[in-house]
Specification:
Distance between the termini: 42 Å
Number of strands: 0
Number of domains: 1
Number of helices: 4
Oligomer: single chain
């Protein structure tokens, strides 16, 4: 049984897909499920602290596993396309 995803959760996932790409997000869910759960828990925590009476933006911290996996995927894509630069290494 999967948890029910709210409209705000869907919007957050769509934003992540727009920023990082839907292929990456699907792969991240499959390859790093614990990291994906950590990401959604961080988002849930920030949602719970939101209030219409606060006008400060809320930041969601990306878990280390997300950042690490993104770097690995990005470097692999750069190698495959031949666009490797010294600042990536």
């Amino acid at each position: 049984m999967y948890p029910v995803i709210s409209g705000v959760d869907n919007d957050f996932e769509q934003l992540l897909c727009e920023i990082f790409g839907s292929d990456f997000m699907e792969t991240f869910k499959l390859k790093r499920p614990a990291g994906y759960v950590d990401l959604m828990i961080a988002f849930e925590s920030r949602k719970r602290s939101a209030s219409p009476f606060k006008d400060m933006p809320l930041n969601v911290s990306l878990p280390f596993s997300f950042i690490d996996y993104y770097k690995k995927v990005k470097v692999n894509i750069l190698f495959l396309t031949g666009n490797v630069t010294t600042d990536v290494m």
